[in-house]
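User: Please predict the structure of the protein below. I'd like the answer in structure-token form so I can feed it into my own downstream comparison script.

Assistant: Understood. Taking the following sequence of 274 residues as input:
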Amino acid sequence: MRMALGLSYNGQAYSGWQSQPGGNTVQDHLEAALARFATQPVHTLCAGRTDAGVHGLMQVVHFDTLVEREPFSWVRGTNTFLPPGIAVQWAQAVPDSFHARASATGRRYAYVLLQSSVRPSVEAGRVGWVFRPLDGAAMQQAAQHLLGEHDFTSFRASSCQAHTPVKTLRRIDISRRGLDSDSAHELHGVVPCYWRFEFEGSAFLHHMIRNIMGCLVMVGQGLKPPRWMDEVLQARSRDAAAPTFSPDGLYFLGPQYDPAWGLPTRTAAYDWLQ
């Protein structure tokens, strides 16, 4: 039988999603926990790989097994053997035709960024950081150049294994949360606040969002005009873009599937980030 799991994890302690010889990846820990619960080896396939330091709020995986258990048993039993930063949120039997990656019609990510003259402390590893004020309108204008189907070579890591750099970005939402400048305490001319960037697309290249974030921040800080984003896109060269931004504030919100599969669209892990 084929099972699908929804998984959340804090990526700080792990070397990304994909299994590595050192064994300290989310996939390694999940498969070890599943094997202990099922008392047999289990191999998982995920909806979208994440880098070291990147968090997952609803990673979806599937695996095949001869072991029959109730869905809640897969959740509780697997979580018994997982480290504190990883937790199965739900489990569901699915048809053999379901594939966590191939059946996905889209994917969503969010990046949470702290604007403050002082680096993060309690939020360290969970938010990105800028110490200069950002211009939201300028970033919105820059983001518009990326919507639609494009060749995103300029935002692609050299190690990317995708068959094509052509992807479709359907939505980029940018919002600011925090105190207004009239009521907030400015330190060195910077009003502390949080910025949230949400990305929705068909699929994403390796480091694509972090490279886009680097460019958006440059525009937001006034180092480049909004139209520069289109110049970077048209250049189709990684050298044209900004340096890759920190993984700390990046969250995989999860894949999107046809409702006919009947899978959850979000988990409780989402709530604090909304």
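That's the full token string. The radius of gyration is 20 Å.
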